[in-house]
Amino acid sequence: MSPGKHSVSQSRWVLTNFFFLTLYFLVLGQIKAEKKLKFAVMVFRHGDRSPTYTYPKDKYQEDSWPDGFGQLTELLAMPLKNCPRYNQLQIETYTSKEFRSLLEPYKDLINSLPNITGYSIKEMQEGVRWWLLYDALQCEQIHNYPLPVWATDDVLNKLSQLADIGMATFFGVYKHHEKSRLQGGVLMGSIIKNISNAARNASSNLKLIMYSGHDTTIASLQMALNVSNGKIPPYAACHIFELYRGDQG
User: Fold this and answer.
1) Strand partners, 45
2) How far apart are CA 106 and CA 161, in angstroms?
3) Which sequence ranges are marked TM in the entry (predicted)?
4) Predicted local confidence at residue 24, as pLDDT
């Protein structure tokens, strides 16, 4: 990414955070007097972006986007190794009865996708491909790029449902609790630790922690909390955890 593009990305990131802080503290002004907010944690998804990837036959490849693919993703990427146990769970997920039963209504669409997208038949059996495909088409549609003729409203609707299933396979569908421990459980543990520290140390100057993440960040946290609605979290989706101190301490 060039310095100019990096500057634009940073400016957008700052504006997004400013919006959330402004909205958050406006809401705080309405809190009842008998309770005093001592500490808060926010986890939110970033704003609008270009696709992180797209399907091989998409005519809108990276050079079609002014700032390239996934501009915010590049700023927030963490070069960590994948967890071997989680990788094994994903392999087991894609061969599980639970996963196969979810795919049954979409078999015809899935079988037609390799020819029109450029993905291999094997690749189209992986949930992540449906999410990446729908994400690319959705970003293109939002930014007024003409979609391919095969991307009808019916196909987009089914791809949206497949994308939700694909996202769900990351954190659930099969061995949900173990996946949650390895994914959203890590973030949940950090949130609990920070809130516990704030409760024990009333004099601390630290009042707010903000995590800027991705749709997968929000989804993994929702699954760990068992509050997921099965949908991909939209742009700017946010969870707020608050610690109050009442008159009784």
Assistant:
1) 213
2) 9
3) 12-29
4) 56
User: What DSSP character marks residue 235?
Assistant: T
At 54, list the tokens.
Answer: 């797209």
For 51, the token pair is 């696709």
pLDDT digits (tens, 9 = 90+) for 18-75: 555 555 555 555 544 466 766 667 676 655 666 766 778 787 777 666 566 766 544 3
DSSP state of 33: T
Q: Provide the pLDDT for residue 75.
A: 35
**Contact in structure between 186 and 80 (CB atoms under 8 Å):** no
Residues acting as catalytic residues: 46, 215
Alpha helices in 44-83, H assignment, sequence order? 71-76
The label of the residue with tokens 């593009």 reads 5
Of the pLDDT bands very low, low, confident and very high (cuts 50, 70, 90), residue 160 is very high
In the sheet that 238-245 helps form, which strands lie side by side, from edge to edge? 208-213, 36-45, 238-245
